[in-house]
Write a structure and sequence with these properties.
Blueprint lengths: L1 E4 L2 E4 L16 E10 L6 E6 L2 E6 L5 E5 L8 E6 L3 E7 L5 E5 L1 E2 L12 E9 L12 H21 L2 H15 L4 H12 L52 E5 L8 E2 L2 H4 L5 E5 L2 E2 L9 E2 L15 E3 L2 E2 L6 E7 L5 E2 L7 E6 L7 H15 L3 E5 L13 E2 L25 H10 L4 E6 L1 H16 L5 E6 L15 H21 L3 E7 L6 H10 L4 E3 L7 H14 L2 E7 L24 H15 L5 E5 L12 H19 L2 E2 L1 E6 L2 E6 L1 H4 L11 H10 L26 E4 L9 E6 L2 E2 L1 H4 L4 E2 L2 H4 L13 E3 L17 E8 L5 E2 L7 E6 L7 H15 L3 E5 L2 H5 L5 E3 L25 H10 L2 E8 L1 H16 L5 E6 L15 H21 L3 E7 L6 H10 L4 E3 L7 H15 L1 E7 L24 H16 L4 E5 L12 H20 L1 E2 L1 E6 L2 E6 H5 L11 H10 L39 E5 L5 E6 ...
Parallel strand pairs: 12-34, 14-19, 21-22, 21-24, 24-25, 25-31, 26-28, 26-29, 27-28, 34-38, 40-41, 40-43, 43-44, 44-50, 45-47, 45-48, 46-47, 54-57
Antiparallel strand pairs: 1-2, 3-6, 3-11, 4-5, 4-7, 7-8, 8-10, 9-11, 12-13, 14-33, 15-30, 16-20, 17-19, 18-37, 19-32, 22-23, 31-32, 35-49, 36-39, 37-38, 38-51, 41-42, 50-51, 52-53, 55-58, 56-57
Helix pairs in contact: 5-12, 6-7, 8-9, 9-14, 9-25, 10-11, 12-22, 17-25, 19-20, 21-22, 22-27
């Protein structure tokens, strides 16, 4: 029971009851071996129940009895160890009989353990039973639970324990004793035997003698329920109605308590529900049945709401509850009667064509036949004769083009005229793609049609590369623009570093907000100065900093946003056609200012000026934006078909929602917060000082936007988004101060980073996941028993646990390669040095290298400066797990206080073992993980770093296969992608490509016969096909050998080659012509540097990991959950099942809607791992011994078009060139002619080559037999190695010089 007294919280434990441990007398249990087969003599049966383990010979009919405190609902583990095999199974008392098959050890012969197994029975017994035991019935368990709960409550009431604890806490808070434990002990002695009632105030006990620092138990550590790791996301049962609040500490769970708003919201914050308009409120709905029933079972209704992420600390603010986007089971419109229009307005943006394409595709799937594209923006509505009819065939490949096939324009004719024309054309669904200005026009059009009573759904899709639309995570096109902007910065860096006394200056787009410039600088990492429109800038300070950079570094990279043309300069006040103020060109102005200053001080300087401007927006979207565009378009169509109107579709906290258009038009556009964490991260990267003018007047802080949406929202409480069976669970994490005492060292970032407000967080900075509807794990309907997590926000803390100058840190990477590993390593080193740490080690070879001193490297900012531009990892990754107790001892011997581990779930298990080993050694070391995998299969996380880059690279392979398939007759482009057990990489790449016909994932039960038949159908109907298969299908379509690699992973059969041969054989049996172009990028998708998106992600993860270690958090990993960076206990991800593609979920349905492959490619039929040998595979190549060039008689052979010889005679000069043509030799000077030839043997002979050129090795230009040209032909000496050398390579007196000009 939780008793609140201000900041202090006491936990009173009820021993027993529903969540308490049962007493030893009532927890007798029996495990018996009923039968066994093939078990060798000497095998041991080992049973662990709770903390008790018993073991003995595995003899049939022999029972083991336990008297131990075991929870009725907890499973227990049984280990069976035989001489050649072993197995582990988790048992529950509600099941009685278990059939167990033993898994052979790797070294065991498969013949000896072919049929090994046994049958176990487990029974829970009443303690008073004698003789034959009877299983306890469930109703008996429940009755005993209820009796114990009642007994505990009676006991507490009888002894007035609640009043006693309240009085005790009040006395402690008043007296503030130096030793609260001695104080409480004195209270207890005085209270023993006294009557119930308030206790007299007791004088504080004398201060005890100093003792070594002891662990202060966290609030959740007094839990009475052990966390067995299998109930991670299952709500705990409780005895009250309504949602629950539970603390999960290091050692277990606390008792559930009713959820209060103060548990998850900061004081003064409120929750409001945004109202969404539906045409069914005004017009009679058609109540049409959706045609998507064959594609999905995941339909939503009006109760599908979700909230934003909730912050427990910070300024009071309003959080919103939003309607989830997605298909509805009942439609407002009859699809066949719908006329739909699509219009794009404003500036260009990557992904416009992708949205248009997917709108048309999804409308066609619904059955809409009349779809018009309106060219020219809102102006084009006035001229229906220019409207374009859009079909699936017309838009098939437009996503590969930049810009928009519907020419965009600015300007807004009268909305009454727009509404009239749309009504005259019978338009029932109007899709508008644009920014905030476009959405204001869309809302005005919606109001105009509502006023005239026209039944039309108006749905917006927000777009802008500036990413300034409020509430949304980001707008489509922004990620692509950042990627292109990063390339421009990289070019400036190359110019700056490869030219003497050079500055690379880049101007990027961003009229009023600097998100593109800021994110591109974070992605590039080597920018020295970044100037944003939101900043108050002194040009004099910027130029002086440039002087300092050139004197210290010799080069610099400066990025300025175009919006600084309205802050550094004063514009003329002119406006363009769209009403936007024309800005002064700040790029050339800043360049000239810097050059003038350097000329004034007589310092040499070159400035390479780059202005990519429109290059960042006039391109096709990357993989991330491509998928984003598809999902937004699909949800827009779902909303319109269900009758929602006046709405826009967006992604908020990783949830796709419908927002009223006013939600983005009535709020101020997003701006870079100069006191926020993103700007602090920028300054931590650039190390730039503050550029604010000395005489600047502080800008008035604008009021928050709270209250602006009150007219379209209504207040609600927590119970409206969480039901009685749901739970908010706080994940507490380990702090070294619990065991080694608090150090309270002042944070040194205040000294090293002076250009930004750091924005420190407290230990109470808890953030709660979005509340409300989530997709069911079964893929059908709403998931009622649901746990939402409350996690600690990542970021710097006001005080540190370590003195930075005394810290030694170590970094290790394990497992397979992944884009971004070097980026994380670089950011870890840079942030550690920003804190003041000067000993940073890199461990080569994974966990194995940790115990080998020769593999440790010293890392400094200088030697990691450019590593993020390279793929892989400078710390050679490896698999394998030496004893982590030995690793801990080595870390202790090297004085390592911070240990950073980069890897997947297996690596994190090893990190947790190291963390526990160091606890056993009482070594004060923070262990922090950074999760990585291109498979994206780690649970809870939004995604892992490297996944985005891998998808982009996989997309290139699919595009290659599509070009080959469509440009060759009767061709199939077949691509195999990585993904051993999880198909996310393959699925997302196919969604981004949009041109895949068949996608096969490891989670699918693939029916090979149906795949082959569908392939033949595609070739007959469209003449080509693109098929993508994940490597993990080598364990589902094919049965492999069962061998494992060095990392313990099962070796998979090659699914790509198997499928290629199977398709070829099938088409051969049908006598159908076929060509297969097989593309296997495999390791190409993971061995590349991180792209812009992943690069920024890696920066954030690396910085957050260092903040955690410096603050003394240990046994944690850094993650992004619901678009928020948080710290999670390592166990939270290692004990959660790996994430897999849900073949009944929405993403898989999105895949089916894109590929249009039959849903019936299921019912797997494993095939043999053997493939039919391809012709010629085992045949030796025929080598022609005769060289016709070296023959004395060279002949001319003339063949006809069928290869038949028509003429054979001696070759003549006139056969090659005209009689008047002249052949001349171009002689080359050879030093041997002047100095004599040494004729030294070439050391390359027999090592790298056996083919050498000699003095007769010559070649000529192409010759024409008939030409009027009079220019001569030339013979030239062929380049290449010679068998004899003129120079002695080992001559110590000689050297070589290289110069580039």
């Amino acid at each position: 029971k939780l008793l609140d007294f201000g900041r202090c919280r006491t936990i009173l434990l009820f021993v027993g009851g529903q969540h308490g441990r049962r007493s030893a007398a009532s927890a007798q249990m029996e495990v018996s071996v009923l039968s066994s087969h093939g078990i060798p003599a000497g095998s041991i049966l080992s049973v662990r129940a709770g903390q008790v383990r018993k073991q003995g010979p595995c003899v049939p009919q022999k029972a083991m009895k336990f008297n131990t405190a075991v929870m009725e609902s907890n499973p227990f583990t049984v280990d069976i160890m035989a001489t050649v095999a072993s197995s582990r199974v988790t048992m529950h008392p509600d099941r009685q009989i278990y059939q167990i098959e033993l898994q052979p050890q790797a070294s065991a012969s498969p013949v000896t353990v072919d049929k090994m197994g046994l049958e176990l029975q487990v029974r829970e017994l009443e303690s008073h039973e004698a003789g034959a035991a009877q299983p306890i019935r469930p109703e008996s368990r429940q009755r005993r639970r209820d009796e114990k709960v009642g007994t505990c409550q009676d006991y507490v009431q009888e002894h007035k324990l609640v009043q006693f604890m309240q009085s005790l806490m009040q006395n402690i808070l008043v007296d503030r004793p130096q030793d609260p434990f001695a104080y409480m002990e004195k209270h207890l002695r005085s209270a023993r035997g006294a009557t119930a009632g308030p206790l007299a105030v007791v004088e504080p006990a004398p201060a005890p003698m100093p003792q070594p620092a002891q662990a202060a138990a966290p609030a959740a550590a007094v839990a009475v329920v052990k966390d067995d790791g299998k109930r991670h996301m299952t709500p705990l049962s409780k005895s009250f109605d309504g949602p629950a609040y539970v603390m999960q500490g290091i050692t277990g769970f606390g008792s559930p308590a009713p959820l209060q708003q103060a548990d998850i919201l900061a004081p003064g914050s409120q929750l409001r529900r945004l109202r969404v308009a539906n045409l069914g409120e005004t017009f009679t709905t058609q109540a049409a049945e959706t045609p998507l029933r064959t594609m999905t079972a995941n339909f939503l209704d009006s109760s599908a709401w979700v909230t934003e992420v909730l912050m427990k600390e910070g300024q009071p603010r309003t959080y919103y509850k939003m309607l989830c986007a997605g298909p509805r089971e009942v439609l407002h419109f009859e699809p066949r009667k719908v006329v739909a229009t699509i219009v794009t307005c404003g500036g260009l943006c990557p992904g416009l064509n992708s949205v248009i394409r997917q709108l048309v595709k999804m409308l066609s799937i619904y059955g809409v036949t009349k779809i018009y594209g309106i060219p020219g923006g809102y102006k084009g509505i006035s001229d229906p004769s220019r409207w374009l009819e859009l079909t699936s065939e017309v838009v098939q490949d437009i996503h590969n083009l930049g810009g928009t096939v519907l020419s965009s324009d600015r300007g807004n004719p009268p909305v009454e005229e727009q509404a009239r024309i749309l009504m005259e054309m019978g338009v029932r669904q109007h899709f508008v793609i644009g920014g905030d200005g476009t959405h204001k026009g869309a809302y005005a059009c919606y109001e105009a049609m509502k006023n005239v009573g026209w039944e039309c759904s108006v749905v917006g899709i927000p777009k802008t590369i500036d990413n300034d639309v409020p509430m949304l995570d980001q707008t489509f096109g922004f990620d692509t623009a950042c990627t292109e902007a990063t390339q421009a910065i990289h070019a400036a860096y190359v110019e700056a570093t490869c030219n003497a006394n050079c500055i690379g200056l880049v101007k990027l787009m961003g009229r009023h907000c600097g998100f593109i410039a800021m994110h591109a600088c974070l992605a590039a990492r080597y920018v020295d100065v970044c100037l944003l429109p939101e900043m108050d800038i002194s040009a004099e300070k910027v130029i002086n900093h440039c002087l300092t950079l050139m004197l210290t570094k010799g080069h610099a990279v400066i990025v300025v946003a175009e919006g600084c043309g309205d802050t550094l300069l004063k514009s003329t006040g002119e406006v363009d056609a769209g009403g936007n103020v024309k800005l002064a060109d700040v790029g050339p102005w800043l360049r000239d200012k810097i050059l003038a200053r350097f000329k004034e001080v007589k310092l040499p300087l070159t400035i390479k000026y780059i202005d990519p401007t429109y290059m960042v927006r006039a391109i096709k979207p990357n993989a991330f934006d491509s998928i984003y565009c598809s999902v937004l378009a699909d949800h827009a169509v779902h909303a319109a078909m269900a009758g929602y109107t006046g709405v826009t579709i967006g992604k908020v906290c990783e949830r796709y929602v419908m927002l009223p258009i006013q939600a983005i038009t009535q709020q101020r556009p997003k701006r870079v917060n100069l006191k926020g964490r993103w700007f602090y991260r920028l300054v931590a990267t650039t190390k730039q000082p503050e550029f604010t003018p000395d005489d600047a007047v502080p800008k008035a802080v604008k009021d928050a936007d709270d209250g602006l949406l009150n007219d379209i929202s209504e207040a609600c409480d927590i119970d409206s988004v969480l039901g009685p069976h749901q739970e908010v669970r706080r994940l507490d994490i380990e702090r070294l101060s619990m065991h080694f005492g608090a150090k309270d060292v002042p944070n040194t970032l205040n000294v090293t980073l002076k250009g930004a407000d750091i924005g420190f967080m407290s230990d109470d900075s808890w953030v709660t996941q979005t509340l409300g509807w989530t997709e069911s794990t079964t893929g059908i309907g709403r998931e009622a028993p649901q746990v939402r997590l409350q996690m600690l926000r990542a970021g710097p803390r006001q005080t540190l646990h370590f003195q930075p100058e005394g810290v030694a840190a170590a970094i290790v990477t394990c497992g397979g390669l992944c884009p971004g590993l070097n980026s994380v390593i670089r950011e870890l080193v840079m942030m550690l040095y920003s804190y003041g740490v000067r000993k940073v080690y890199g461990i080569k070879g994974g966990f194995k290298g940790a115990v080998e001193p020769g593999t440790w490297l010293t890392l400094t900012p200088e030697n990691v400066e450019d590593i993020h531009t390279h793929g892989g990892t400078i710390l050679v990754a490896d698999r394998g797990n030496p004893p982590h107790a030995e690793i801990a001892k080595v870390l202790r011997s090297r004085g390592v206080r911070q240990y950073f581990v980069l890897g997947g779930d297996g690596t994190h298990r090893g990190a947790y073992e190291s963390y526990e080993a160091m606890r056993e050694l009482s070594w004060e070391c923070a262990v922090v993980g950074v999760p990585k995998t291109i498979d994206n299969d780690i649970n809870l996380l939004d995604r892992t770093f490297g996944f985005n880059t891998a998808c982009s690279e996989a997309l290139k392979a699919i595009d290659t296969a599509y070009v080959e398939a469509t440009c060759n007759a009767n061709c199939i482009g077949l691509v195999k992608l990585m993904g051993r057990h999880c198909g996310y990489l393959t699925m997302m790449a196919c969604l981004a490509a949009r041109n895949v016909d068949i996608c096969l994932l490891p989670e699918m039960d693939v029916n090979l016969d149906r795949v082959l038949k569908h392939s033949a159908h595609l070739l007959k109907t469209q003449g080509f096909a693109v098929i993508v298969v994940a490597e993990g299908c080598g364990d589902t379509m094919i049965q492999g050998s069962g061998d494992v690699d060095a990392g313990g992973n099962k070796k998979l059969a090659d699914a790509g080659l198997f499928l290629k041969d199977a398709i070829a054989d099938y088409f051969k049996s049908l006598k159908m012509p076929l060509t297969i172009k097989y593309v296997d990028p495999t390791y190409m998708v993971r061995s590349v540097p991180a792209n812009s998106n992943d690069s920024i992600y890696c920066s954030m993860l690396g910085q957050a990991a260092v903040h955690a270690a410096m603050a003394g958090y240990s046994g944690v990993t850094v993650a992004k959950v619901d678009e928020t960076f948080v710290y999670l206990p390592i166990r939270a991800i290692t004990e959660s099942p790996n994430r897999h593609v849900d073949v009944k979920g929405r993403w898989f349905e999105q895949l089916l809607a894109t590929t249009l492959q039959p849903h019936s490619l299921g019912n797997k039929r494993p095939a043999t791992g053997k493939r039919t040998p391809r012709a010629g595979r085992n045949q030796k190549a025929i080598v022609q011994q005769d060289d016709p060039i070296a023959m004395e008689d060279t002949k001319l052979v003339v063949l006809d078009g069928y290869g038949k010889e028509q003429l054979c005679r001696a070759l003549q000069r006139s056969d090659l060139i005209s009689p008047k043509a002249e052949i001349r030799e171009l002689p080359c000077l050879h030093l041997g002619e002047r100095f004599g030839n040494m004729k030294l043997p070439n050391p390359l002979k027999g090592k790298t080559t056996s083919m050498f050129q000699d003095r007769y090795s010559w070649t000529s230009q192409s010759m024409y037999a008939e030409t009027q040209a009079t220019d001569p032909y030339y013979t030239m000496v062929r380049a290449g190695p010679r068998e004899h050398l003129h120079f002695d390579p080992k001559d110590p007196a000689a050297c070589a010089a290289i110069v580039s000009c």
